[in-house]
Amino acid sequence: MSETQTLTAALAPWLAERFGPTTRIADLRLLAGGASQQAWRLALDGADAPALIVRRDLGGRMFATALGRADEYAVIALAHQAGVPVPEPYAYLPDIEGKEAFVMACLEGETIGRRIVREPRLQAARGRLAAQMGTALAAIHGIASEKAAFLPGPAAGEGPAAYGLRLLEQELAAVDEPYPALELGLAWLRERMPAETAPVLCHGDYRVGNMVVDEKGLVGVLDWEFAHRGHPGEDLTFGAIRAWRFGQASRRYGGVGDMADFLDAYNTARGTRFTERELYWFEVASNLKWGIATVTQARRHLSGQEPSLELASLGRMTAEIELEILSLLDPRHPRHPGD
Fold it and tell me: What is the residue-level pLDDT of the chain in tens, covering all 339 positions?
């Protein structure tokens, strides 16, 4: 049987229990994207039947701290309860053909980053997306961190910025191969630790490409597998790095808008006063985080663990990110905060 047929059979018992014994799958399609998980769009028979998404493990993880499907489902449920724009969670399924999965509502809209930043029909949406993402992130960070105690986070007595740096050091050390520009970035971060703050619930991969967008703007926030308790500066800068502008480098936030619009919306909603200057450390750290990720993903392909053109192509991005890190470390960079 094909994978589609196998999954159809595996999902049938849950569908019958949840929607009734006469429920049938009208269409099951694997969606594009996803280096560590599959996303299947599930359409059911019946005019009122909801469209669903099945998120299922592929077997590899980008970072050692990446969540399993049970915890990812739990954090989406937590965000949904708090009013964050996320898909409605339906069920965690511990074994779908030997792999964990969960089911959530399908949000209609565009998710591919290069289309979001370029398509003419989304021009009006781009004008409001940065601010909408700032407001949504404020809602995520506003969830009480004790409700997210099941997520990875700082050790006792450790600040969230120090925790984030420790993870980067561990991930790069695990590569066991020299990457001088990445190592220089780590050294720069160690020497300039920022002020610590109380940890918040971080999405961990907050950027264009992990959002559902339609003509009105933000529909929902996806891909929570890197959620953790950390410093808000992580989420505030990850979506602004050059890699996530999809070729629209002049639009500093996600290739769609101004960083100021994003930060103003976030600060207004949260009652904070974060500035780009104080977030510069986290911008360097966010570039380093993605640089290490491209290395580790490429190694999954090169080692033969998971041959994949997509993983191999991520490895080609490493040099671009290294160049960006070196640019940010240069005191002549126009936004460099100085030492």
Answer: 788 888 888 998 999 999 888 888 989 999 876 556 788 999 998 767 889 999 998 765 556 788 999 999 999 999 999 999 999 999 999 988 888 999 999 999 999 999 999 999 999 999 999 999 999 999 999 999 999 999 999 999 999 999 999 999 999 999 888 999 999 999 999 999 999 999 999 999 999 999 999 999 999 999 999 999 999 999 999 999 999 999 999 999 999 999 999 999 999 999 999 999 999 999 999 999 999 999 988 777 556 666 777 766 776 789 999 999 999 999 999 999 987
Rounded Cα distance between 43 and 53, Å, is: 9
Say if residues 105 and 52 touch (Cβ distance below 8 Å): yes
Looking at the chain, the domain(s) classified CATH 3.30.200.20 span: 3-105
Tell me: domain 113-329, CATH 3.40.47.10, correct? no
The CATH number of 3-105 is 3.30.200.20
Q: Where are the beta strands (DSSP E) in the chain?
A: 25-30, 37-44, 52-57, 89-96, 99-105, 200-202, 211-214, 217-221, 228-230
User: Within the chain, which residue ranges are assigned CATH 3.90.1200.10?
Assistant: 113-329
